[in-house]
Design a protein that fits this description.
- The complex is a heterodimer of chains A (about 400) and B (about 260).
- By secondary structure, chain A is α/β, with parallel strands linked by helices.
- Chain A has helices spanning about 5-15, 75-85, 95-105, 120-135, 175-185, 210-225, 245-250, 275-280, 295-310, 310-330, 355-370, 385-405; strands at about 40-45, 45-50, 55-60, 110-115, 140, 170, 190-195, 225-230, 255, 270, 335-340, 345-350, 370.
- Chain A has twelve helices and 13 strands.
- The two termini of chain A are about 15 Å apart.
- Chain B is α+β, with helices and mostly antiparallel strands.
- Helices cover about 45% and strands about 20% of the residues of chain B.
- Chain B is globular and about 55 Å long.
- Classes of the chains: A alpha/beta (about 400), B alpha+beta (about 260).
- The interface of A and B includes residues 14 and 34 of A.
- Bound molecules: pyridoxal-5'-phosphate.
- Pyridoxal-5'-phosphate binds near residues 147, 231 and 234 of chain A.
Chain lengths: ~400, ~260
């Protein structure tokens, strides 16, 4: 049995001085409390260690940022080189221009780019740009979709007032009629429709977009002059080196990135079409650390490697190997599993388990076997998940399955 | 607080007193020998009414009490409140609250019995630190409080826009709450657009099970007085299964103290 002794004592200390002990998506309450690691210590490649020294093959990749693997040598080198010149400056560095050029060159439909630190910085700013551009107020989002922590969309109710959400409308994923109905009622008021490339709600299977859905998003946004914002924060660079919209044929006006862009370094970006450039220039945007050079240098390198090494294709292949292996094992041991989402960001769970109790048992058992699989959230692969790592993962997964057979 | 409440909030508060707090008489009398003794052989029905049409009937007989929203027979005593605020004041013992005894003013013994039972119930719902030291007292207090909370959640989701909204985004399911391994158990079923509470172990497998380490943790959590996320991390509270349902109910419980502190 893995020991979580230090984990427990550290969390007891944390709970005295930090609200919730650990807040946000890393909160133990989001996983399987008591059976999951809470604090990380170190990581390399596709593995990490918790504070108790337990080691895991990581299928969450820092919840997305680790695209190439932890401490990827080329990224580490670029970071060190950029660091020599200083940390954070009064002005942007040359890196910001070079990175914007790189984004414009790499990301389909991008004519310009701006940079921040977190995904939320960009999703919120993109909405302001849409409002500036259209002169309208309202924003439409998918009911369950996560777009960040600002009051208009943050999950939960703490500190949120009804007015924060008074300009937000909802539609359902892949449900063209729900979108059409909304647009029929409010087209003249809608500044933006914000969507993720595919749907990955928590506590539910992921759903890929149907071609009808993509067609409706393109057609309706263009017909009614509504800005189409692609929130590619979670999927960006994992599904397609030129932006996830290329995988599905979506035609967004504004595209938001973060997570994988810096392979673990803090950076986010919003790119847009030339039609939105003047509006973008009018929406004030800044932050204390936004002129740091290192994450920009790293982001350029990450984009370069993604293209050079065909990372999305690699991830798709490995993800498929993982999913097929898991499904076959589930069948063999009489625990039917269901896979959803994209192979690069798969979600495999126990089928016919609406309470998620079996899924929680399975993921807790996987933790015991040295596999970090989230019970309720899509997973992430990185380039460090080689064929051998997937094989090793499947062996661990098999042991986890066997251990829950009788329970 | 009451002065700044809107009309809707005053009405919700009154509903909470009538539909969530008054039914506590049922469990209270069932579990208290003193209360049974006070009630003795008396049998009467007392109703709380407001001019706006809110009603609650307390039927006392056979050393027990049942609380209903509709009348099964005529009331012996009717306490009529001109406004919902006056009814709220009656429960909070503040401000102007004189009910008009529409009927039964002469049934002095029954009124006295009801007052004595009310005072006892109040002690059970709002005990002193000293009283809480008695473990038996403590567990009956907790059971009463949790009962009020479960019913209050139902009332809020029927009448309060925010609570309605919270629940509307959550798939149907059954939540089971328990204290320790052997202690108090209750459930809430979210189905067909309504919440239905119940005591004991639910008959079917719950979608989410919330277990509080002890009664104190349960009370503090339901009363929004502890850091629940930290308590979950520390495993003072365990949540197994479909946590979004427990979260949604938690958000609704958190809203109860905005209106009442039974
Ligand atoms: C789809 C999506 N949008 C926006 C965000 C917010 O990004 P951040 O947490 O960096 O602010 C996230 C984060 O998980 C995300 O998954």
């Amino acid at each position: 049995m893995k020991s979580f002794k230090k984990t427990r004592s550290l969390f007891a200390r944390a709970s005295k001085v930090i609200p919730a002990g650990i807040y946000g998506h890393a909160s133990p309450a989001m996983m399987v409390p008591g059976a999951f690691p809470y604090f990380a210590k170190a990581a390399e490649g596709c593995r990490y260690q918790d504070v108790d020294g337990n080691s895991y093959i990581d299928y969450m990749c820092g919840f997305g940022p680790i695209l190439l693997g932890y401490q990827h040598p080329e990224i580490t080198q670029v970071a060190r080189e950029a660091e020599v010149d200083g940390e954070c400056f009064n002005h942007p560095t040359e890196y910001s221009v070079r990175l914007a050029e790189k984004v414009v060159e790499q990301i389909d439909r991008a004519d310009w780019a701006v940079f921040g630190k977190n995904g939320s910085d960009m999703t919120n700013w993109a909405i302001r740009v849409a409002r500036e551009q259209t002169g309208r107020k309202r924003v439409a989002k998918e009911t369950q979709a996560y777009h960040g922590i600002d009051p208009w969309c943050v999950p939960g109710y703490g500190g949120v007032i009804a007015e924060d959400r008074s300009q937000v409308d909802h539609f359902y994923w892949n449900d063209v009629s729900s979108l059409e109905k909304l647009i029929a009622e409010k087209a003249d008021e809608l500044a933006a429709i914000i969507v993720t490339p595919f749907h990955h709600p928590n506590y539910a299977d992921s759903e890929l977009p149907t071609s009808d859905w993509v067609g409706a998003l393109n057609r309706l946004s263009q017909k009614h002059g509504i800005a189409l914002i692609l929130d590619d924060v979670r999927s960006g660079l994992r599904l397609h080196a030129n932006g996830s919209h290329c995988r599905y044929g979506l035609e967004p006006d504004l595209m938001c990135y973060s997570k994988a862009l810096g392979n673990g370094h803090p950076i986010s970006a919003c790119a847009g079409t030339s039609a939105f450039k003047v509006a973008a220039s009018k929406c004030f945007l800044t932050g204390s650390f936004w002129n740091c050079a290192v994450p920009m240098a790293v982001a350029m390198k990450t984009i370069e490697i993604t293209e050079r090494d065909a990372i999305p294709e690699q991830l798709e292949e490995r993800g498929t190997q993982l999913i097929e292996g898991m499904l076959a094992l589930g069948k063999r041991y009489g625990i039917p599993l269901r896979a959803s989402g994209e192979p690069a960001m798969p979600y495999v769970r126990v089928a016919e388990d609406s309470s998620f109790k079996r899924q929680q048992q399975l993921c807790a058992a996987a933790v015991q076997e040295g596999l970090f699989l989230h019970p309720h959230h899509n997973w992430f692969l990185s380039a460090a998940h080689t064929e051998e790592i997937i094989k090793e993962s499947l062996q661990s997964f098999e042991r986890a399955l066997i251990s829950i057979i009788e329970t | 607080m009451s002065t700044s409440l809107t009309k809707l909030q005053k009405r919700i508060k009154a509903r909470l007193y009538l539909d969530a707090v008054l039914p506590a008489f049922e469990d209270f009398i069932a579990n208290s020998d003193t209360a049974k003794e006070i009630l003795g052989e008396r049998s009467f029905t007392l109703s709380f009414q407001t001019y706006s049409g809110l009603r609650s009937y307390l039927h006392f007989s056979d050393q027990s009490c049942s609380v209903t929203k509709t009348r099964s027979k005529g009331s012996d005593i009717i306490l009529h409140f001109l406004t919902e605020e006056q009814l709220n004041n009656e429960f909070e013992k503040t401000g102007f609250r004189l009910p008009i005894p529409l009927r039964g003013a002469s049934r002095l013994t029954d009124i006295r019995t009801f007052k004595a039972l009310s005072s006892l119930l109040e002690v059970s719902l709002r005990p002193s630190e000293e009283e809480l030291k008695d473990p038996n007292f403590y567990s009956s207090h907790v059971a009463l409080q949790l009962g009020v909370a479960l019913r209050a959640a139902v009332t809020l989701t029927q009448h309060e826009p925010c609570a309605k909204r919270i629940l509307s985004g959550i798939p149907e399911g059954l939540a089971h709450f328990s204290i320790g391994d052997e202690g108090y158990r209750a459930w809430i079923d979210w189905k067909g657009g309504r919440l239905k509470p119940g005591k004991g172990k639910p008959e079917k497998e719950p979608d989410v099970s919330v277990t509080f380490k002890d009664a104190k943790t349960a009370l503090q959590a339901i009363g929004n007085r502890i850091d629940v996320l930290a308590a979950v991390g520390l495993q003072d509270i365990t949540i197994e299964g479909y946590a979004p349902l427990a979260d949604a109910l938690g958000y609704i419980f958190e809203r109860i103290p905005l209106y009442i502190s039974p």
